[in-house]
Every structure is written in structure tokens, then in C-alpha cells.
Design a protein that fits this description.
The protein has 335 residues and is of the alpha/beta class. Helix content is 45%, strand content 13%. It has an 8-stranded parallel beta sheet with strand order 1-10-7-6-5-4-3-2. Strands 8-9 form a two-stranded antiparallel sheet. Helix 5 links the parallel strand 4 and strand 5.
């Protein structure tokens, strides 16, 4: 019940990046510094081993080390610790058991690798993971490897007892509303929290109230790659959204569009999101939190013109950034 209450209270949950050195090996000092930054900025949760952490950590033996570092840094706080779980059944069960052994609170369950499974098979897979650790559903947009999951799936998914939340990240209004409606129709809105993962629609998701005839339902918070940067400001935005939910002023609408414009520079939709993770790394590099923007795949780099776009939004929207906060505390986080 405590976990459900925390999730419903509304949390900023950054999708945690991977800190590498120039040899593309884990930079433990900066990996810890990132977690310290998120906690100091007021994040209520951290998600590790997810898309932003690079799914390829599983291929190079880094899943357990990065999960361990994050849980060590969050040990003395009440931050909700979420571990990414993916792959076919054997792999997913092993990852869920690892997360439970490390005392993670929940698993963010990706079904992207189960492209040919039927809805009953996907539900059976989810039930197997939910028997090990509380599950947060994950609608990952198809543009970065997810699969389409329609109303029928989500409505039946909501009946699984140990589902505690859903991260809705299809980057699509039709599909977003379909999931929200499925959870509303399940009658379990007090047990299953909704978290936006739509980095292209963050503030408007958080300000929205939905009602499909069974009563109002809203997003509690967000679990977002965009919130891996400028996290202190994101915390302020969530507070603002919760205070003004259902009341979208012209100022809030303008802010929402600025956040989306900034996200476009960082996430690189102009090149089908190829520069998404390097874009996040580049912002963190400029702040001094990362030494470089290296990814596990040497070919994963900023797209042509993306650095200029990041320059543009940083210049245009200084109020979205938390550079002064990072500068003030960087030395202690790196210590």
C-alpha cells in the first residue's frame, strides 16, 4: 500500500542515464553523481535499466552494477526505486528476481521484445513478473522499438493484482487516451497510478483531467527521459501542474510548448530519435555531470545539426534549466 500511495502522490521519476568514460566503460563516480543529482533535485523516484540507461547494458554485464549503484545511493531516502525488466520470459524473470533481490520497489516491464506474442501470452508474461515484484506497465513508442498495445490488452492488464502503475509513452494522443480509458474502465484507478512517458506532451498530460463516464482520472506524475536533465525545474513543473490541473492558462500553455520544443532538440525526432540518448548526455555533459556523451554503441551520436538545436533551446529557454543548481552542488556530488 505504501508504494501505491507514493506513486499516486505524484512523483518526478527521471529515466536514469548511463555514465561512461572515454573507453566506454562504466564511470562509477559519475554514475553515482547522477543519482545524487536526481535525489537532491527532489525526484521522488529513479528508474534504472530502462531505454535511457541503454538496453545494451545487458549485453556487456552492466545491468547488475548500475542497479546496485543506484540502490546504494538511494538507500537512505524514501525514493521509489524502479528497475527496467525486458526480454523473453527467462531473461525477464531473471531480471525481476535480480531487482527484487536488490530491494527495488517495482519493475518497469517492457514488452517490446515480445513482438509475436498474442495478448493472452503477453498477459501471462506480465503475471509471471508480477508474482516476483510489483509491475509498472510500459507503453514504449514504436519509433524506438515498442509495439502497439490496444485497449483490450490494457483493460485486461489492469486486472493483474500486482500492477501498481502504467507509464504511457506511445507519443500518440489516440493511443494515450486508449490506455487511460482502459484503466478508468477497470475500476482500479485508486490502485493503478498513471505516469506520463510522453516526452513530447509532458505538461499538458500532467494538467489534463480525463473522464470517460466513470469519474475523473489524471496522470499522477511522470517517468521520463526528458526529466533526466533539468530535473530541479521538472520538480517545480510537476508541483505547478498539480496545483493548476484542469485549468490551462495561456502562461502554462506557452510553457508546455517550450518544454516540447526543448525536448525536440534533445530527443531528435527530426531523425527518428536516433540522437535521443546522446542528446540527453550532451546536456548533462555541458553541465559537468557527465565527462562526455559516449554511448555503448560508438555509432550512437548526435545527429547532424542536433548540437545547434540544443544551443538554440538553451539560449531561448533559460527558465527550463537548472544550471545554477548543478554548478552549486556538482563538486559534492562528484566527491
Amino acid at each position: 500500500m505504501q508504494l501505491r500511495e507514493q506513486l499516486h502522490s505524484g512523483l518526478v521519476i527521471p529515466a536514469h542515464p548511463l555514465a561512461l568514460n572515454s573507453q566506454r566503460q562504466l564511470d562509477e563516480r559519475r554514475q553515482r553523481a547522477l543519482t545524487r543529482y536526481y535525489l537532491a533535485a527532489g525526484a521522488g523516484g529513479i528508474a534504472i535499466g530502462v531505454h535511457t540507461t541503454q538496453f545494451a547494458i545487458r549485453n556487456v554485464g552492466l545491468l547488475e552494477p548500475v542497479l546496485t549503484l543506484a540502490v546504494e545511493e538511494g538507500r537512505d531516502s524514501d525514493v521509489v526505486k524502479i528497475a527496467g525488466v525486458c526480454g523473453p520470459r527467462k531473461q525477464a524473470v531473471a531480471e525481476a528476481e535480480l531487482a527484487a533481490r536488490l530491494h527495488y520497489d517495482a519493475a518497469l516491464l517492457s514488452l517490446a521484445d515480445l513482438r509475436d506474442e498474442s495478448v493472452p501470452q503477453l498477459l501471462d508474461h506480465t503475471q509471471a513478473i508480477a508474482s516476483i515484484i510489483p509491475v509498472i506497465g510500459f507503453y514504449l513508442q514504436p519509433a524506438v522499438g515498442g509495439r502497439l498495445l490496444h485497449y483490450d490488452f490494457w483493460r485486461r492488464f489492469a486486472d493483474i493484482e500486482n500492477v501498481v502503475a502504467v507509464k504511457i509513452a506511445p507519443f500518440d494522443r489516440y493511443q494515450t487516451i486508449e490506455v487511460v480509458r482502459a484503466i478508468a474502465d477497470s475500476g482500479r484507478t485508486q490502485e493503478i497510478a498513471l505516469y506520463t512517458g510522453n516526452d513530447d506532451h509532458i505538461l499538458l498530460d500532467l494538467l489534463s483531467i480525463f473522464d470517460f463516464g466513470s469519474g475523473p482520472i489524471s496522470f499522477s506524475g511522470g517517468l521520463l527521459g526528458q526529466w533526466a536533465v533539468w530535473t530541479k525545474t521538472a520538480v517545480e513543473h510537476l508541483v505547478l501542474a498539480r496545483q493548476h490541473r484542469g485549468l490551462i492558462s495561456s502562461d502554462l500553455l506557452q510553457m508546455a510548448h517550450r518544454i516540447t520544443d526543448a525536448n525536440a532538440a534533445i530527443f531528435d525526432p527530426a531523425h527518428h530519435f536516433r540522437g535521443c540518448i546522446p542528446g540527453i548526455h550532451e546536456v548533462l555533459r555541458r553541465q559537468g555531470l557527465l565527462e562526455g556523451r559516449w554511448c555503448l554503441d560508438p555509432a550512437e551520436e548526435l545527429s547532424p545539426g542536433q548540437s545547434d538545436e540544443i544551443d538554440r533551446v538553451c539560449k531561448a529557454y533559460p527558465a527550463l534549466q537548472d544550471d545554477d543548481f548543478v554548478k552549486e552542488h556538482l563538486d559534492e556530488w562528484l566527491h
